[in-house]
Amino acid sequence: MASRLVFSVCWFVLLLSSVCGGRRLRGESTALTLESVRKFLTREEDSIVFSLIERAKYPRNAPAYDPSYLGRATKFHALSLVDLFVRETEAVQAKDGRYQNPVEIPFFPKHMTLTSVPPYNFPNELHAAAASVNVSNTIWRKYFDEWLPQITSQGDDGNYAPTAAADLVCLQALSRRIHYGRYVAEAKYREAPQDYNTAIRAKDRDALMKLLTFESQEDAVKRRVEEKAKVFGQDVTLGKRVDDSSNATNYKVDPVVVYRLYGDWVIPMTKMVQVEYLLRRLD
Amino acid sequence: MASRLVFSVCWFVLLLSSVCGGRRLRGESTALTLESVRKFLTREEDSIVFSLIERAKYPRNAPAYDPSYLGRATKFHALSLVDLFVRETEAVQAKDGRYQNPVEIPFFPKHMTLTSVPPYNFPNELHAAAASVNVSNTIWRKYFDEWLPQITSQGDDGNYAPTAAADLVCLQALSRRIHYGRYVAEAKYREAPQDYNTAIRAKDRDALMKLLTFESQEDAVKRRVEEKAKVFGQDVTLGKRVDDSSNATNYKVDPVVVYRLYGDWVIPMTKMVQVEYLLRRLD
Lengths: 283, 283
Hints:
homodimer, mainly alpha, Chorismate Mutase, subunit A, 61% helix, Chorismate mutase (chains A, B), isomerase (chains A, B), Chorismate_mutase_AroQ_euk (chains A, B), amino-acid biosynthesis (chains A, B), EC 5.4.99.5 (chains A, B)
């Protein structure tokens, strides 16, 4: 218990130190630009669509999410296999330094072990405020409750560990994308701080949200991820390419669901992260 | 040390029991057919190509493979970060039951922990011989020494844990595909046992290899995975689809490398697994 507390404290100190250089770097020139942000987000779309397709390879596999499944077999009565799997896998990845990079945020920071690898000098591109912007709990809940049922078919094939591993890849990709809102906001702020300062000082969320909203851009992103779900989720056969008129059932994950995943959730959540970050940007 | 020995023995018993039903089932009708095998292998191609593209997102990241990198920081002087990462991640996945399914084979069986999930009744489709057909060491060596340098660019971005996680997904997909040769051989054997019995009794590897070789089929598979590398590895933009005449540098992993990965390695290794399985099929 005591050692767990020490780990948690050390983890928080590590997290804080990994982003707190932002204050020092404010105004300095780093690699973070609107162009680098756009490139990162576009590449992450591929990772997200791949991860959803790989999760959809397995059926729902409900026992992996049911705490009573492990209740008889372990001492962790209130935890599901996926809960335990993610906790323990994140602990291995933390030990190997995954969360030294502030782009990566764990779902179970309280259960982190200390990293055992030498420190790596990741660029400090964020304001210290970034450490307190965290929507992991919401991502976890929405992924499992709302989106997972829409990308998987009913059924149980017993592959619970590969299923949990596929879920973790989805969760990590979605979390990285959504929490990257901190970088998006920082890049936008650096581009034109005067546009944001008044709204930040007035703590005006609506004004900030308005400043951050570009509907035509969002529409293009939604249509592009839908297209990616078609291209990556088709059955590739020699001498034949995907056809827009194809029936949706040919795709491994429904492109319309991916369109809505972005439109109803990923984009709004990323913007919420941007607003929360900007509200603390002048602290 | 003693507990590790107990774990190893238990793991071996578990592995053996998970496949030894094959002897009982010989001749019984199960879901394993040439059609189901073909379907599985085709779907695995997508997983393999996705995993290579996701690994190629990170540069080489040489420190992850260099035992001296961890030498100063841990007691495991002779192990690299990737060695440790895969061992510990496999242990988590073993505990959650991954290797109850004989389709999945760990790279570090000696370091497995016992599963803590209830047993799942996976179909026993293989002869007991399957338990002794294992080319994991070769897969590990060839992946890191020969193929990884061809799918990654030089460089070091410090993301060693995500890199190791991406390597593990590649390794698991490649291992599942190559070791699926046991199922391929079983399906072929059930289709026409008389075609194989003479060569098996004579322990004639060359004759078996000849019986298992269909060059036109292999050629189609190679061309299809090359096509998948183009389709899945393109930069998808709205209103534009992949074009065969595109320059290879547009793809996230070189399609020609994927063609050779299959032609020079994955297909021959799968056939080797088939031969080794068949040689034991009448034991």
